[in-house]
Each structure stands twice: as C-alpha cells, then as structure tokens.
Design goal:
It is built from five helices and no strands. The protein is mainly alpha-helical. The chain is elongated, with a radius of gyration of 18 Å.
C-alpha cells in the first residue's frame, strides 16, 4: 500500500463525495497526460495537426477544425485522421 493510497483512505471519509471524486478524476487526468507525453503521443498529434492545418481529414467530422490547445491536451491523432469513430 503506497503513501498516496493511505492519504486517500484518510481523506475520503472527511470530504464530500463529489469533491473526492473530482480530486480522483484530476489525478487520473494528470496520470494519463503524463503517459501520453512520455510515449510521445502528444508530439505525434501536434505534428499531424500541423501537417493537416488542424482539420479532420475524413469520417463524419471531416472538415472540423481543432485548436492547438485541444490537440495538446489529448491523443488527437485518430480524431484528426477521421478513424476515431471506427
């Protein structure tokens, strides 16, 4: 059992459930973004976005434009290529 688990188990009964859930979700988001950055998925998404001018190439959302901030905050390559919905 890690220190984070111990702290979470101590804080959970004190905080209201929605607040604790919110903290858990923020931690999960940070962890997933760290994983995507470490595996260079964010860099790949930015390269694809720049090549296609931040525009979805095919699929039901073809022509939709992403912002740089939106691409930098998720694994956007499948969305930009139009294969995410498959």
């Amino acid at each position: 059992m890690g220190i984070q688990h111990v702290v979470a188990s101590m804080i959970k009964p004190i905080l209201p459930a929605p607040v604790f859930r919110s903290l858990e979700m923020r931690k999960a988001r940070r962890t997933s973004m760290r994983f995507l950055r470490h595996n260079r998925a964010i860099d790949l998404g930015l390269q694809v976005a720049e090549r296609f001018s931040y525009t979805v190439r095919s699929g039901p959302f073809a022509g939709m434009k992403y912002t740089r901030a939106a691409v930098a905050s998720r694994h956007a390559t499948p969305c930009l290529l139009g294969t995410y919905e498959r």
